[in-house]
Amino acid sequence: MLSSSPFLPTFLLLLSLPILFLFAPRILSPRQVPISLPDELDDLALFQNASSESSYHKTWSQSHLSSSSSAYPSSKFRLGATNPKSKIAFLFLTNSNLHFAPLWERFFGEKSHHLYNIYVHADPTVKIDNPKGVFQDRFIPSKVTQRSSPTLISAARRLLATALLDDSANAYFAVISQHCIPLHSFKYVYHTLLDPKLPKLGQFREFKYRSFIEILSNESTLWDRYNARGENVMLPEVPFDEFRVGSQFFILTRRHALLVVKERRLWRKFKLPCLRVESCYPEEHYFPTLLSMEDPNGCTHYTLTRVNWTESVNGHPHTYRPPEVSPALIYKLRQLNSTSEYLFARKFSPDCLDPLLEIADSVILKD
After folding, report:
1. Which pTM was predicted?
2. Per-residue model confidence as pLDDT tens digits over 95-130
3. Radius of gyration of the chain (CA)
4. Contact (Cβ atoms closer than 8 angstroms) between residue 59 and residue 148
5. Measured distance CA(345)–CA(350) in Å, rounded
6. Is-contact 118 138, C-beta < 8 A?
7. Distances in Å between the alpha carbon of 328 and those of 237, 264, 331, 348, 360?
8. Distance of alpha carbon 270 from alpha carbon 283, whole angstroms
9. DSSP conformation class of 29
10. Which residues are CB-neighbours of 362 under 8 A, at least 6 positions away?
């Protein structure tokens, strides 16, 4: 009988090989976390509140704060009512413990507390410790994040919106990784971004300031990244000649932060799932493309976060280890062929904390 023929298994195997080659990439690729409708609606409510004209000075009502998942900034976040001096909002995006919290604690110091705010978006599916000190109770309501998915765009927008609503004095918004370290003192960073003679917030002329975000149009992988969701899927909202790539860690002015949380049109394309995950880095595409299309002259087109891509592995940059940490490394990482030095650097392994603390006061925070 045919079923007992020794040729049947071989025939079935040969028949299945083309099918296997066709569907294996999708089967073996990491499953992307979808953005659910409740999450989308929840974010939309937050973004609409943050983008309203009155968000500069409006405090959310207690009745809204008492609502369940939509209650983003609680009363402990409303810090800007009594101090109108311009601040920098540090937005930490993490899916692990903030291993370098002790170093950042030294960076912020005790005298600069009225010049900055901290916000942390931590993946709720991962157990993350709440550090003491300046990071304590600075965690915002967060949602799941996953590499190569639009969830990282949503997380960054969530941070921006929360910071916009929280404090009208927030003038610059710096997105920071848990693997980032400071390369200078807080005083140096503040004076680099904000003129120390800056007038009070009511007289703040933000058009003088630009966002520090990498915007690239000549990368060799640009076409593959553009078609990661399928060929020409990005049309008509995003023509290929307007598609840009860049770093996911950037520093935005308040007007650009508002632009990002107001945006709806491009998001409809960038939130689509990718078919080719190896070319899909939505958070590195959405922000550079949006700002390039809307206000290219308002951006520097370079980032102030130093990353070493010369030894990248699977899309990850070089990770510095303890034997590499030295004053010479810090001085090298600071160097930037522009009007300013790099302010931050990544990517450092958690066990670099002790050697970094050893040179913190004498090198890193000494300008």
Report:
1. 0.83
2. 999 999 999 999 999 888 899 999 999 999 999 988
3. 23
4. no
5. 14
6. yes
7. 46, 45, 5, 15, 13
8. 9
9. S
10. 327
Tell me how far apart the alpha carbons of residues 351 and 243 are, in angstroms, rounded to a whole number.
38
Residue 38 has a pLDDT of: 93
Give residue for tokens 């020409």: 232
DSSP 128-159: ----SGGGTT-BPP-----TTSTHHHHHHHHH
Q: Does residue 215 contact residue 301 with C-beta atoms inside 8 Å?
A: yes
What is the percentage of the chain residues whose pLDDT exceeds 70? 77
Pairing type for strands 87-94 and 116-122 reads parallel
d(C-alpha 278, C-alpha 268), whole Å: 21
| pLDDT-based confidence at residue 8 (cuts at 50, 70, 90) | low
> What pLDDT is stored for residue 262 in this prediction?
97
Q: Which of 88, 58, 84, 52 is nearest to 73 (CA)?
A: 58
How far apart (Å, rounded) are the C-alpha atoms in residues 75 and 65?
Answer: 8
Cβ–Cβ < 8 Å for 228, 237: no
How far apart CA 245 and CA 107 sit, in angstroms, is 30
**Beta partners for 92?**
120, 176
- Lowest-pLDDT range of 79-93, 206-220, 289-303: 79-93
The tokens of 273 are what? 């799932």
Instruction: Work out the pLDDT band at 67, boundaries 50, 70, 90.
Output: very low
DSSP string computed for 172-240: EEEEEETT-EESS-HHHHHHHHS-TTPPPGGG--GGG--EEEE-BS--TTHHHHHTTTSTTTTTTTS-G
Q: Residue 83: is its pLDDT beyond 80?
A: no
Mean pLDDT calculated for residue range 258-279: 95
Q: Say yes or no: domain 37-71+81-364 is CATH 3.90.550.
A: yes
Tell me, what's the pLDDT at 71?
Answer: 39
Share of the chain above pLDDT 90, in %: 68
Q: Where are the alpha helices (DSSP H) in 227-317?
A: 254-262, 267-270, 282-294
